[in-house]
Amino acid sequence: MSEGTHWLIQQGASLVTGPKDIAEQLGSGLQWLSVSENTTISASEAEVELPFADVLANVGDEVTPVDVVAERAGQPVPEVVIKLLDLELAGWIAAVPGGYVRIRRACHVRRTHVFV
User: Do the beta carbons of residue 63 and residue 95 sit within 8 Å?
Assistant: First the structure.
């Protein structure tokens, strides 16, 4: 049992009980990055290119089943499933029981190919 801890100590590990211990170990190795005032660190949602707007436009704030999204978008279900997964991984929608819901505000997206 103690072989693992002995090995760690032999490799140079040290006891850390809080953030102060880490700062002391790093010493002067910590340096702040200089950032000019003109540097953009993150873009606002309005500046982010919207992935698969045609599919996202058909997912609302209410639970929308995959087949309904596919029908509204006028695309085959397998293609829509791939796009929905990409949108979910990007944080635009969430998978919930019964389908998907939009979780980011994307009010600039128009509904496209909506069949009435």
Answer: no
What's the whole-number average pLDDT of the chain?
Answer: 80
Domain, as residue range, for 93 = 45-102
End-to-end CA, the chain: 68
Beta strands in 23-111 (DSSP E): 93-96, 99-102
* Residue 1 included in any domain: no
Contact 95, 52 (CB under 8 A): no
Residue 96 bridge partners (DSSP): 99
pLDDT-based confidence at 40, cuts 50/70/90?
low
Question: Tens of pLDDT along 65-105?
Answer: 999 999 999 999 999 999 999 999 988 899 999 999 998 65
